Amino acid sequence: MAQPELQFASEEDQLKYGTKVLMEAGFSPQQIEHIRERVGSGPNKIPYTKELTGMRRYMVQELLAAQLSNRQIAQVLKLSKETINADRHHNRNLWTAQILQSQDAWRARLIKEQQELKEQAIEGFLNSKRKVVTTTKGGDSIVRIEESAGESGFLGVARSCLEQQAKLIGLFDVKPQAEEKSGYKAFLDNLSKEVKKIKEAESNTEARTTAIDTKAEFDDDGHPTGTSRPMLPALDEEDNGEES
Fold this sequence. Notes:
Elements: H1 11-24, H2 29-38, H3 50-65, H4 70-77, H5 81-129, E1 130-137, E2 140-147, H6 152-168, H7 183-209
Antiparallel strand pairs: 1-2
């Protein structure tokens, strides 16, 4: 929600307020007058240089921080509202880029610290496995090193460091799609479907192969000969399934 602009009795009071803000930010009256009167496009104007553009954007940002609206800033600096909008957009993008760059630097530093702590934890675990045993026999001391299971607390620290590293690089934010399946599971599902299709096709083929032979041969008594089978009588729907 936009903040309400400050109210001034006159444009002169508004200019005084804006000038005071800019001078407190480190600008001299000559620099303010230079931006207001001498720089810009048009007759008898000095074209903007990189330095002058940066100065103008800095002024715009300071006046924005002092709660002046775009219209008021345009009046104070004698600029168009389009120029003020462009400077605001540029300043916002620059600020965002700096924030992201700062976040990346801190993220890299934290990842490095987690890596170092993890390595120290693993080293501590390996050292905890080594147990020095000293025995005395016949006045002589015998030193031997035995290995134990080690302190599990070191592994807990190392695991925690790994989890923190995963969070810092965003791995915990990755969510698998609901429709995704593992490669092996998808392979088995597809294989099952193909086998079912093959069985259905074989069953249909067998049914056609063993169907009634319309060219069956009969003996003198009307019985089929050889492997021929008689045709089944057709059913008449009107006779409710009785032979026609």
